[in-house]
């Protein structure tokens, strides 16, 4: 009865091109519908209750914990993505429950130490299938999370798995059939979130100054709008107002451009979305170009900043040493992983163990198993 009312609400509110819960292709392991939660609400809850999700609190986004407590962690990045994606999804009358599940899932496969950790694990796994955080997220939710008695993984709906699969296969540019709009929204929101919060964090940490940023048209536009609106802000208030304005510009452009594309392409159903041959949820050409300029700037000034690079190489070295250490003595891993050695082989099991660690746990384990025995 209550499940029906949730479905009725969707029927009333969602656009025809949205993913409706009643049309879900279901789950690999058959389950009875929940009395009052729809399938994508249930997916979201399962992700929130997973240990991989909780560990995002102690995983690096760009800056490690040694830089204080202001900057984003992988968890707060994830929440910003979910927040932006839900705003866009609601405005376009898409399925917010599905969007939230996809957003909360999108980075759970990240190893400790951000992309530095990913590069090192991929290198260590070169001869054994490599490592990518996107496919590791799928491995976590289909195999490694063991929270339910009746099945391995979280038994998420096929739509949520397809969303993560699309990220993993990086299919957006080349695939013939386009992903659901909900999946496209999360991808666009991810990029808006990191562009804006990486600028904010870098300014706070003193890796950038706002004078340098004025060369970047997107920042200058946001700064001009703040100047027109406020007259007496101190530096910190100004910076935060510009960040808010930046998000506003990017989100508004995304919504307006997507709406225009839906209209121009006469997209009214999910089939239209799949078959239209291009990504619908994308910024305008002008903003896409400006975003790229900002991203190039961040790449040069922040991601390749000597302080960031030095931390990365220390973290990467620690992870590589641990990979070799556990590979030569796999029985010293926790029992859960020792039990998997036979089915998954030593390299993949060691990789799974390391990928699940938070930054601080990885450093503790490194001290315990590597530094102390050196
Ligand atoms: Mg992300």
Explained architecture:
The chain is mainly alpha-helical and 374 residues long. It has helices spanning 2-13, 39-48, 51-55, 74-91, 96-105, 114-124, 133-144, 158-169, 181-204, 210-213, 217-229, 235-264, 270-275, 285-303, 306-328, 335-338, 341-344, 346-356, 359-369. Helix 9 (181-204) crosses helix 14 and helix 15 (306-328) crosses helix 19 (359-369). It is globular, with a radius of gyration of 22 Å. 43% of the residues are buried. The model has no long low-confidence stretch (mean pLDDT 92). Bound molecules: magnesium ion. Residues 77, 81, 106-107, 190 line the site of magnesium ion. Magnesium ion is lined by residues 77, 81, 106-107, 190.
User: How far do the termini sit from each other?
Assistant: 64 Å
Assign an overall shape: globular
Which radius of gyration do the C-alpha atoms yield?
22 Å
Query: Main β-sheet, in a few words?
Result: none
SSE order and pairing:
Blueprint: H1 2-13, H2 39-48, H3 51-55, H4 74-91, H5 96-105, H6 114-124, H7 133-144, H8 158-169, H9 181-204, H10 210-213, H11 217-229, H12 235-264, H13 270-275, H14 285-303, H15 306-328, H16 335-338, H17 341-344, H18 346-356, H19 359-369
Helix pairs in contact: 2-5, 4-5, 4-9, 5-8, 5-9, 6-15, 6-18, 7-8, 9-12, 9-14, 11-12, 15-18, 15-19
The protein binds magnesium ion (MG).
Task: Give the tags.
374 residues, mainly alpha, globular, binds magnesium ion
